[in-house]
Every structure is written in C-alpha cells, then in structure tokens.
Design brief:
By secondary structure, the protein is mainly alpha-helical. The chain has one domain. It is built from two helices and no strands. It has helices at residues 8-30, 35-54.
Amino acid sequence: MSDLTLSPAIATMIFVLGCWGGHRYRQVWKVEGPTWKLWVYGLLAGVSFLALGFIPLAKVS
C-alpha cells in the first residue's frame, strides 16, 4: 500500500479550491454561461472533494 497522505495545510487548500470551484460553477450555471466553464469548474470541485474524501490525512505529531 502506498504512503499517500495529505498534510492538514494541503487539505485545507484543496478544500478552499473545491469550494471556490463549486461557487464559480453555480454562478456560471445561473447566468447560463459557456458549457466549457461549467465543465472546468465542475471537474475542479468534484476532483477536489473526491481527493479529500479518499486520500487520508497525515497524522500531526
């Protein structure tokens, strides 16, 4: 098994990035903006939250 873990600081940055992507997705969706922007922001938010859900956090000692 690999030793892939996220530090709390990196996890926080990924969380903020995911929130920002979700917020931008909703803004573009409400104004019926370009489809490519929906894909970019939606994938950014989705990948961010999936990474946070499936990559464990490192223990702080």
